[in-house]
Amino acid sequence: AQTVTQSQPEMSVQEAETVTLSCTYDTSESDYYLFWYKQPPSRQMILVIRQEAYKQQNATENRFSVNFQKAAKSFSLKISDSQLGDAAMYFCAYRTHNNDMRFGAGTRLTVKP
Amino acid sequence: GAVVSQHPSRVICKSGTSVKIECRSLDFQATTMFWYRQFPKQSLMLMATSNEGSKATYEQGVEKDKFLINHASLTLSTLTVTSAHPEDSSFYICRARDYLYNEQFFGPGTRLTVL
């Protein structure tokens, strides 16, 4: 079974600074998808960034980028120039081709003004 | 972008009653929908996978007679919590798969409180 581990229950960052959220996963599959979702207090799941496992290039979306290390099964999220609106729960997720999606326990990010 | 709605967004019911939660894909066909439960300060736990026109597949430990799932059309899946108890109080979220583009979209969730 696939598992997703987020070892940081809480993280804090100063506004305008950079923070990295960690995620590791366990799988025997060779092709899969990885995601970072943001869940604000409204609890709507918002897709932040996705990465296809067959792509070696790390995905980037504006201030959000990932460090995907396939051999190490690591998928960290870097948030640059942190903003107050980035404060939320962040979930790392893994999805197989049969669309089974599993989530990590989440990291609560606090942004200090 | 594609939108998934859930109704109701919030429901309070008495213990022993049944509650139906709807998940609709508004501008795409969803052959597969997934139902998750999220307890406070916890992650999303997959409850079941429903495919249009067939029986749902439940995760281990999820009571299929208690959580009835129906996926009768390509745009609607329903989750019925039967004989609800206070321990069923939770946040229920659906995820819908766009058949054409194999993209996935989450609904906004339903907060269920059982008194």
Features:
A: mainly beta, six-stranded mixed β-sheet, four-stranded antiparallel β-sheet, B: 115 residues, mainly beta, 0% helix
Molecular structure report:
The complex is a heterodimer of chains A (113) and B (115). With 113 residues, chain A is mainly β. Chain A is built from no helices and 12 strands. Chain B is 0% helix and 56% strand. In chain B, a hairpin with a 5-residue loop joins strand 5 (44-51) and strand 6. With 115 residues, chain B is mainly beta. Chain B has no helices and 11 strands. In chain B, strands 2, 4, 5, 6, 9, 10 and 11 form a 7-stranded mixed β-sheet that branches. A 4-stranded antiparallel β-sheet of chain B has the order 1-3-8-7, with no helix packed on it. Classes of the chains: A mainly beta (113), B mainly beta (115). At the A-B interface, strand 11 of A face strand 4, strand 5 and strand 9 of B.
